Every structure is written in structure tokens, then in C-alpha cells.
Amino acid sequence: MKKRLFAGLIASAMMASMLAGCGGGAQQGDSADGGSGHKVTLIMSQRDEWLSEMEAAAQAAAKDTGINLTTQDANSDTSKMIQYIESSVTAGEDAIIINMVDPETAAQCVEAAGDVPVVFVNRFPGDPSVLNEKAVYVGSDEMTSGAFQGEFLAKFFKDQGKTDISYLMLNGILGQTSTTNRTASVLKALEDNGIKATAAAAPLAADYDRATAMDMISPLLKTTKYDCIISNNDAMALGAVEAMQQQGLDPKSVPIVGIDATADGRQAIKDGTLAMTVFQNAEGQGRASLQAAANLIDGKPIAEGTGYEVDDENEFIIWVPFEPVTVDNVADYD
């Protein structure tokens, strides 16, 4: 199974993180040969289900390679994130991995890091020109995530003989690259596959939050005509599922699609309440970002040992591919 390989390591790392406390903590690397001894800080924008899995994977990789990894949680506070970067520099860290609160602050993060190498993970810099030999990015190409959603929906409706559809859109945090590209790519894929898709209502900015999505979409479910619900992530998609169920509506009556392939999202696919999702590899991003940090410290090619390749046009980007998940292959991700 795709996710089972690192399950034991991740469980151990998550326990270490919980014992360290919500404000952050240290994961001391340990390996048979003594490891690299590098000191690296991972600064999280926040801890949700997916990001916690990514963090745990980085911690597991640190243990495997003998890297001393410290993790911090900025609690969605950009000023706190910058303070953690500055503190890491003062503490003599060899590299800093940053899951940005706001991708538009990438240049500010690089400036705060000074001469210390930076790996941005998961949230692509708003200004890619900050990427260079000492500041790189590890993540997944958001334009492919929405494309998988669009291709699935296009086939679904074409099989029903439909080429004109209306949709409800659940957006993540407005202004973030992930939100913008996931939304743009699903609509482009629908158009490219011969589907005329019209918004049934204005997009709902639910900030990637399940409860917020549930509250925002509830008033539209019985007052608006729609053929599907498109969500920028699983959490919001599941909020739509719950909202329909609360109103006595069958979530299986229209396709609801998400992104991330979280545990709850995968279960919803098995239950039939979520039509499909897109696997975003938390383990892959966590481990690759840690390895990229080690490579920067050691002066090695950034993708060496990650199992992934750099972008064709930008040598400072490592892509961890998205993968579509449906009822036909969801068991592969357990």
C-alpha cells in the first residue's frame, strides 16, 4: 500500500511531536553511523490533519538520517513565523524549512534567514524569483490537482450525456497560490474536456476549514440549482457532505470532489459520499523537504536522495506529484 510503508515511523514521530507540546519541540536525529549532525528547524504555518502528517514525515526522515530537527508552530501568525526564522538563525541552525503562513512573505522569510539556506515546503512563494541556490521549493504542482478533478467531472457528466453544468465552488484561503491554481485548473480542465461549467453562486471562501464550509454552503443547498460541488480540499468537501446530510439531502445525488486524500476523505469515497479526491503526498513532501535541506547544507544537488525530480524550467523546484483517487483505487492509499 502506498501510505503504509512509513506508517510506523510516522506514528512514532507524531507521538514525539505531541509530547513536545503544541508550541513546538525538538526531534533529535539518531542513526547507526551517528548521522549528519545537521541542525534544521521546520516552521509550520499551523497544524491541521494534512500538515501534521507532513511534519511527522520530516521528523521520521530526521531520525533516519541523524539530523537534529526542531519544529515550531506559527499558529497562522506571520510575525511569529518571522520571529521563529530569526531565532533559528541566532541558534545556529544549518537550514530552515518553512511552511509559510502567507506565500507573499517569501522574500521577507529569505531576508530574515540571512545566510542560512531555506526550503519552502507545500506553499509556493508568491514571488518565485526568491528561489535560488540557497532558497528552494518542495511541493506539488497545484495546476495538476484541479486538472484531475476537472477530468473526473468531465467524464462523469459526459457519461450522462451532459455538456452544460452548474457548480458550487468551495475556495480555500483567497490569495494563496494553492487556492488560485486549484480553482483555475479544475475550470480549465472542464472547458478543455468539452464541458461548459457555470457558477451556480459566487465562490465560497471557506479557508480550507470544514466547519466554515458547512456553514457557508448550507443556505445554498435547497435554494440553488447545481450539478456538482467542487472543493479546494477534502475538509471543505466533507463540510458540504455534512451540510447536505443535516438538511436531509443525499450527498451521493451530486458529485462532490476534494483534494488531499485525507483519512476522512478516503473513508468518504468508500462510503460513496465523496466522488473523488486527489492525493497530495504529505510523506513525500515532508521527507523531500528534509532531504533538500540536508543537500543545501552539504552542497549537493537539491533533489539528490529525494526520489523526485526538479522542474524542467526551474532547477530550484522539486515537484512531488499529485495522484487522482477514486473508488477504484482508494484502497491503495490506506
Which second-level CATH architecture of the largest domain applies?
3-Layer(aba) Sandwich
Structural class: alpha/beta
Helix fraction, binned, reads 25-40%
First-last Cα distance: 6 Å
Shape: elongated
Mean pLDDT: 90
Indicate the radius of gyration in whole angstroms: 20 Å
Total beta-strand segments: 15
CATH class of the largest domain: Alpha Beta
Largest sheet: 8 strands, mixed
- Our count of domains comes out at 2
Under CATH, the homologous superfamily of the largest domain reads: Response regulator
* Percent of residues in beta strands: 15-25%
The parts where pLDDT drops under 50 for at least 5 residues are 3-24, 26-34
If you had to describe this structure to a student in words, what would you say it looks like?
The protein is elongated, with a radius of gyration of 20 Å. β2, α2 and β3 form a beta-alpha-beta unit. The protein is α/β, with parallel strands linked by helices. The strands form three sheets. An eight-stranded mixed sheet has the order 1-3-2-4-5-6-14-13, sandwiched between helices. 40% of the residues lie in helices and 18% in strands. It is built from ten helices and 15 strands. It folds into two domains: 175 residues, Response regulator (Rossmann fold), CATH 3.40.50.2300; 138 residues, 3-Layer(aba) Sandwich (Rossmann fold).
